[in-house]
Amino acid sequence: MNLIELRNLYRKKLTDFSTRESDYFLKILLNEYFNLDFTFINLNPDCQLNESQINKILESLDKLEKNYPIDYIINKKLFLDNEFYVNEDVLIPRPETEELTNWVLEDNQGITKKKRVIDIATGSGCIAISLSFYNKYFETFGVDISKEALNVCEINKKRLCSTTTFIELDIREEKTFSKKFDIIVSNPPYITKNENLTIGKNVKFEPQIALFAPSKDPLLYYKKIINFSKINLNKNGLIYFEINPLYIKEINEILAENNLNDVNFRDDFRGKKRFLKIKLNERNKV
């Protein structure tokens, strides 16, 4: 089977995707598996693959037909220009989370003193590692309830020569650190089961614990992180959240209950209210 025949097969089988997307998937896999770059593929459509190569490509096609994410197939996702290892133990980093991370970086351009930063529900570690990668004054920590996710963090830590410290922690349980933080950043689970039908088919392969908040209390993790901040965040410290745009009213109620009024919301690239920054003043602390 040659490349043009494979291309046609991918187009035929991947009915949930556009022709452009199916072509892109094939090119990515040919490059990842066999180091065939895009130029070679375009100039040599009649190039024949051997049997083992074809079997490998067809195996990936079978997964893609089931909407299995290509990022898990190649165990790779680009995040702020760095390649992060990903597998089914962690969420695939989204562009919105890049925006959240960039907000923290933008606000701290030009600092000349160390700041302690903790990323809660760190997943692949992409936020914590990226923050320290792009700002040498950040001393970053990442915490997660999942041991498997923390294993992925350690892989990414080595890949990017990061000094980030990763710790197993259930944010629902009270925890006091010996030294306080200057910044908390978090993209916690915030999708509810009611939204399950509105999300992409490929999301079913991502870890449910990292996606879904409790249906009876969809803002549980925001409440817990705010409580955590009262114990572990320095005066005038900052909290950066990625939030569910469907719960803005309820989020505002939580802010009012905790006397948090120094806040800013920000829209994502789709125009949805997706991010929240909170400044913790002395009167908000325990």
How would you describe this protein?
- The chain is of the alpha/beta class.
- The chain contains eleven helices and nine strands.
- It has helices at 3-13, 19-34, 38-43, 51-65, 70-74, 95-107, 126-134, 147-159, 208-211, 220-232, 248-257; strands spanning 77-79, 82-84, 115-120, 138-144, 165-168, 181-186, 233-242, 263-267, 273-280.
- The strands form two sheets. The chain has a seven-stranded mixed β-sheet, with helices on both faces. A two-stranded antiparallel ribbon has the order 1-2.
- Strand 8 (263-267) and strand 9 (273-280) form a beta hairpin.
- Helix 1 (3-13) crosses helix 2 and helix 2 (19-34) crosses helix 4 (51-65).
- It is elongated, with a radius of gyration of 21 Å.
Specify the structural class.
alpha/beta
Strand order of the largest sheet: 5-4-3-6-7-9-8
Task: Describe the sheet with the most strands.
Answer: 7 strands, mixed
Give the terminus-to-terminus CA distance: 68 Å
| Helix-strand string | HHHHHEEHEHEHEEHHEHEE
